[in-house]
């Protein structure tokens, strides 16, 4: 049974909803990270607390879409691993752009790679939401695994930034850039071929 076509108005509404959720996630992350920084200290929060907080908040849009889907509003596009990855990638990338522009007030050099790290990590979480959609409760374990992978990537980046050594940081930046852009392109291409 195929899913009904989604009207353009509904698609625009979804995009606006997701963008608003990313803005809400960004604002919430700032408040929560500041609170935790006061409790456990800035260094510890940056290295380990921030990835946990931000990876959860960045994936709220995916959570909302998954809940809508599971409530029997079959959004056929969510039945694709590639689309879930791409939605997560775009949500994480937008979060990273907001962070760079409004928190750090610049978007150049290695700082710009942070947006790709946010994008890649949330894209990976998107794959986890695909498993919840396709496997139901059994997919929750895979979602949790992808969440942990995203935290590990984010935490590794934050720890490399903290030691201020340019060689491992640049190496990871190049690697993340290649992996992030390649997986996004491959996901997009595979989805287009499937259509």
From TrEMBL:
Keyword Transferase (UniProt): no
One of the record's GO molecular function terms: peptidase activity
TM segment ranges: 12-36, 56-73, 85-107, 113-132, 144-160, 166-189
InterPro entries: PrsW (IPR026898)
Taxonomic superkingdom: Archaea
A Pfam family reported for this protein in Swiss-Prot or TrEMBL: PrsW-protease
Keywords tagged on the record: Membrane, Transmembrane, Transmembrane helix
Annotated protein name in UniProt: Protease PrsW
Organism field: candidate division MSBL1 archaeon SCGC-AAA833K04
């Amino acid at each position: 049974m195929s899913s009904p076509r989604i009207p353009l108005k509904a698609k625009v509404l979804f995009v606006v909803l997701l963008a608003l959720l990313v803005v809400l996630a960004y604002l919430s992350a700032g408040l929560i990270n500041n609170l935790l920084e006061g409790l456990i200290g800035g260094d510890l929060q940056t290295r380990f607390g921030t990835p946990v907080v931000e990876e959860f908040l960045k994936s709220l849009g995916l959570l909302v879409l998954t809940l809508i889907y599971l409530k029997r509003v079959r959004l056929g596009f969510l039945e694709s691993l590639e689309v879930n990855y791409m939605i997560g990638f775009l949500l994480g990338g937008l979060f990273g752009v907001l962070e760079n522009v409004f928190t750090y007030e610049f978007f150049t050099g290695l700082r710009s790679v942070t947006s790709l790290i946010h994008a890649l990590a949330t894209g990976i979480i998107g794959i986890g939401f695909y498993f919840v959609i396709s496997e139901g409760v059994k997919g929750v374990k895979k979602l949790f695994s992808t969440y942990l992978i995203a935290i590990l990537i984010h935490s590794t980046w934050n720890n490399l930034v903290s030691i201020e050594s340019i060689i491992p940081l640049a190496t990871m930046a190049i690697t993340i850039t290649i992996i992030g852009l390649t997986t996004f392109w491959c996901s997009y291409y595979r989805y287009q071929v499937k259509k």
